[in-house]
Specification:
The structure holds 2 protein chains of 2 kinds. By secondary structure, chain A is of the alpha+beta class. In chain A, 17% of the residues lie in helices and 33% in strands. Helices cover 31% and strands 15% of the residues of chain B. The longest helix of chain B is centred in the N-terminal third of the chain and has 19 residues. At the A-B interface, helix 2, helix 3, strand 2, helix 4 and strand 9 of A face helix 1 and helix 2 of B.
């Protein structure tokens, strides 16, 4: 399935994070406003609300702060998604709130981003929230980060202040795992260095924020190495009279790693049954190969037992298969996580029962040191845990594959999503020759 | 490796197909909201892509306000038949007659009355999930909506207490009486929808294309003259060349003056547009939070 348009339109997904009042929503408003992505009725609505609540000044934050409570309190409560395009790229923005109690939304917004913008108030410099958000971006393995040093107008466009803040970051960045960090001095309120270069920063020679976002190279987000196909849905047309379809049996799903080709030998895990890919079926016609993250329907050579929750994999670069797992977890519920607690765990396309067998450590945001064997993980805590599941997971390390290396924990009863887990590498990947009992 | 790349429409498509299949797998009694409008036309194509060669494993549901454009209902019925789907229509006037929906004195608009009608249909068929075509780029409150949006036993949305939605791991667990609204087109823009209609060569109701129609000017909009919206004595009726950009009820949908006759014309028109799609919907202009307030009650 190669791309069909001559120049594929690139999609960049980024999230904005930072503390309350750092000006995230204002920055997004400014990006939209200055890149001419706003429509007249949106500008009119801004002007209307400016007269009502803003003392006559347009409040760009009102563009994204869509909920009553948000406008009343002048804060962002929930992740807001915004869409805009320039001739060079399409963008999806997740505006993630800064309140400490809303860190779960930061995780939500960041989990699908390939780029993060961290806002810092030039007057305040690095604060705990900056460290927390940088840390989350690192844990979620967002490869690119921009530190937007905002409100530079309020520190007299001081180059010295800008470098102080940069140094504060560079003190702790080596302890985190982020490949690419850029610093940009700007004023979201006045539009300096957002879309248009600022006359106030002759000492800064880098790109504007939009210039950077348009130009930053985003490698493939998707793992094209080991083939992974978590089965979502068994596709069996119930049409006994119809000779074309009465024998059709396919497994439908989204490829969550690698490439699949017709004729390729594959294995169904956790059962270990081997078979061959006979056809790659789509409504638009059969394919000879398909790759992550395409959604396809595979027809297999043998009529073997395979259903939702199973994962079909290629025979090279094998995943781990285990029900004893180690993971980093971001805890998002006010009821703390303690050893012995039971949850539903959703991983790829299966939901299993899980018990947290132990808490290994808790990350201290202040110094990025860990507290070993903590009694519990509270809301917004990050830490390492061990989990045992009622059925083995077919998984990869989160650092290798976001889709097969991640899970969520769901609290029984309330059905709330309470934790986000990122799996450590399997202690031993399954070896295809151990399971040589193909039909 | 550079050829292993999905363009942005293919990316949006695979994201939506994945969500459709999650719904089919995780819910016992899902339904797909189909109005015949452009967004739900895309939804049906995505459902075909997700489930063919099998049948689409859920019925289509539409709340008919009684104020629909007739072209829309004709299209809706024909498309559902063509796909071999089961179409369930529940009417606001029946809901009013049976006391499920109670109009305020003098309330002409059926917009608010769709809410109890929809919730009653969800209860009647014990649907635990309804897939809808809402997009986050339409409106500020919708920009905050999850793909899987939980509704309590009163059908209410609680925007301050939404489930975190992380990676592509959707939490579809609901207790009896609760349900989920699922929006596979969340990340699509108006432009994406029309580009997809073009790429997939999808038919759309004729009112999206330029035609002649008698209109009156009200509150800055051209509204179509019909038996339920007769001109006031003071109003001048003009015959204009118009089309709709978004379809609501016939009494509240502003017609835009446009010569756009083909999907390509529409794409050009949208690219140059200086107002948003919902700028022509009177129902959204009631207040800053008109959409949020309706969504909290159980609106689409």
């Amino acid at each position: 399935m190669p791309h069909s348009s001559p120049i594929p339109v690139d999609l960049l997904r980024f999230n904005t994070c930072g503390s309350v009042d750092d000006g995230k929503s204002t920055l997004i408003g400014r990006l939209l406003y200055d890149s001419k992505s706003l429509m007249e009725d949106q500008i009119e609505a801004l002007e209307r609300s400016a007269d009502l609540t803003g003392g006559g000044q347009i409040n760009l934050a009102n563009l994204t702060d869509g909920l009553r409570a948000e406008r009343e309190q002048g804060i962002t409560i929930d992740v807001a998604y915004r869409y805009f395009a320039t001739p060079r790229r399409k963008f999806i923005i997740a505006d993630t709130p800064g309140h400490v109690q809303y860190t779960r939304n930061m995780v939500t917004g960041a989990s699908t981003a390939n780029h993060s913008i961290l806002m810092v108030d030039a007057r305040l410099g690095v604060i705990e929230q900056s460290r927390r958000h940088t840390c989350i971006a690192s844990l979620l393995r967002i490869p690119h980060l921009v530190v937007a040093v905002n409100k530079m107008d309020l520190v007299g466009w001081s180059e010295t202040r800008f470098h102080e803040i940069r140094n504060q970051f560079e003190d702790f960045l080596p302890r985190l795992d982020i490949k690419d960090v850029k610093f940009i001095p700007l004023s979201a309120l006045n539009g300096d260095n957002v879309v248009d270069a600022s006359p106030h920063t002759p000492w800064y020679s880098g790109p504007t924020l939009l210039g950077h976002l348009e130009g930053v190279h985003i490698g493939s987000d998707w793992n094209l190495d080991g083939f992974r196909f978590p089965v979502q849905w068994v596709n069996r047309p119930n049409r006994p009279q119809d000779p074309e379809w009465h024998d059709f049996r396919g497994v439908s799903g989204q490829i969550s790693g690698g490439i699949v080709r017709v004729g390729q030998p594959v294995m169904v895990l956790p059962s270990g049954l081997k078979t061959t890919v006979q056809k790659i079926w789509t409504m638009d016609g059969p394919l000879t190969e398909a790759f992550c993250p395409a959604s396809v329907t595979l027809q297999l050579e043998h009529d073997i037992d395979v259903s939702r929750g199973d994962t079909i994999v290629g025979l090279t670069t094998m995943p781990g298969v285990s029900s004893d797992l180690r993971a980093r977890v971001a805890w998002m519920n006010t009821r703390p996580l303690q050893a012995g607690r039971k949850y539903f765990l959703k991983h790829t396309t299966q939901t299993v029962q899980a018990v947290v067998t132990s808490l290994e450590n808790r990350l201290k945001i202040a110094d990025f040191e860990t507290e070993e064997n903590p009694k519990e993980l509270g809301v917004n805590d990050l830490g390492e845990i061990r989990v045992r599941t009622s059925r083995p997971l077919v998984f990869d390390s989160y650092s290798v594959n976001r889709l097969t290396g991640s899970f969520i924990l769901i609290e029984p009863g309330t059905n709330q999503t309470v934790g986000a887990g990122m799996l450590f590498p399997p202690t031993e990947p399954i070896k295809p020759e151990y399971t040589d009992f193909a039909i | 490796m550079s050829t292993y790349h999905l363009d942005h429409l293919q990316y949006l498509e695979t994201e939506a197909i994945h969500i459709m299949r999650e719904v089919a797998s995780e819910f016992e009694r899902p339904a797909l909201l189909f109005s015949g409008g452009k967004d739900s036309i895309c939804l049906l194509r995505l459902a075909e892509k997700a489930f063919r060669p099998s049948d689409i494993p859920m019925p289509f549901l539409n709340v008919d306000t009684g104020h629909h454009f007739p072209e829309l209902n004709t299209f809706r019925d024909a498309r559902a038949r063509e796909l071999g789907g089961r179409l369930i229509v529940r009417k606001v006037e029946d809901a009013i007659a049976s006391g499920i929906a109670i109009p305020n004195p003098g309330e002409v608009s059926r917009n608010r009355l769709q809410i109890p009608t929809l919730l009653a249909a969800i209860e009647e068929f014990r649907f635990d999930c309804a897939i809808g075509g809402a997009r986050r780029d339409e409106e500020k409150a919708r920009a905050k909506e999850r793909f899987f949006s939980f509704r309590d036993s009163f059908g209410q949305w609680d925007p301050k207490n939404q489930r975190p939605e992380i990676w592509n791991l959707y939490n579809g667990r609901v207790n009896a009486g609760e349900h989920m609204r699922v929006f596979p087109l969340s990340n699509w823009t108006e432009m994406d929808v029309w580009e997809y209609i073009k790429r997939e060569n999808l038919a759309v109701p004729t009112i999206y294309f330029s035609h002649r129609r008698e209109c009156v000017r009200r509150q800055g909009q051209w509204l179509p003259v019909t038996s339920i919206l007769p001109p006031k004595p003071s109003e001048e009726v003009r015959e204009l060349v118009v089309r709709v950009r978004t379809i609501g009820d016939i009494i509240s949908t502003g017609m835009i003056e446009s010569p756009a006759n083909t999907v390509d014309d529409i794409l050009v028109e949208i690219a140059a547009a200086r107002v948003t799609e919902r700028g022509s919907r009177a129902d959204d202009k009631a207040s800053e939070a008109a959409m949020e307030d309706r969504k909290k009650q159980g609106y689409f």
